[in-house]
Design goal:
By secondary structure, the protein is an alpha+beta fold. The chain is built from 3 helices and 7 strands; from the N terminus they run H-E-E-E-E-E-H-H-E-E. It has a 5-stranded mixed beta barrel. A two-stranded antiparallel sheet has the order 6-7. A hairpin with a 6-residue loop joins strand 4 and strand 5. The protein starts with a helix and ends with a strand. Keywords: Initiation factor, Protein biosynthesis, RNA-binding. InterPro entries: EIF1AD (IPR039294), NA-bd_OB-fold (IPR012340), RNA-binding_domain_S1_IF1 (IPR006196), TIF_eIF-1A (IPR001253).
């Protein structure tokens, strides 16, 4: 099967079976970080952190963003890697799971707070957020009247301000 055809079938599988509720052995987890070699660090609703692996059919076709949610199946033979990714969840699937009452309560409260604060703002979760005050204060001046030569990062466009 050619690469475009395989990609088409993988994408159809992901979106076609997207609204089925998880089975008893599957769990919903939050992605914390990518550890390389198709391993991702995730957090369970209980607060436990562990690694999960991405199956070969998803590799180079579907990407996982930090802070997103995925559906996993536990694997028994792993010591460090304790799960396999079954599905990457999008906003529509998350809303469906909330309506079906299968969404974990620990993730539900965090999501409501995040949505209230940043309803219309797009946040790229794959980049670190730099929070700093770009306004100059009287504390940054020396007794000689010269400003500090330390650069500050502007949070709006992440450019170096001197």
């Amino acid at each position: 099967m050619s690469k475009p055809m395989r990609r088409k079938h993988v994408l159809l599988e992901v979106f076609r079976h997207g609204f089925s509720t998880p089975s008893e052995d599957q769990r919903i987890v939050k992605v914390l970080a990518s550890r390389g070699n198709n391993l991702h660090e995730v957090e369970d609703s209980d607060g436990s952190r562990f690694l999960v692996t991405m199956p070969t059919k998803f590799r180079r076709t579907i990407w996982i963003i930090r802070g997103g949610y995925i559906l996993i199946e536990p694997i028994q033979e792993g010591k460090k890697v304790k799960g396999k990714i079954v599905r990457i969840l999008n906003n529509e699937q998350i809303q469906h799971f909330i309506q079906e009452n299968v969404w974990p309560d620990a993730f539900l409260h965090v999501d409501k707070n995040e949505k209230e604060n940043n309803e219309d703002i797009f946040v790229n979760r794959n980049r670190p957020v730099i929070n700093s005050d770009t306004s100059s204060s009287s504390d940054s001046e020396d007794s000689s009247g010269e400003e500090d030569s330390e650069p500050e990062f502007a949070s709006r466009n992440n450019r170096l301000v001197i």
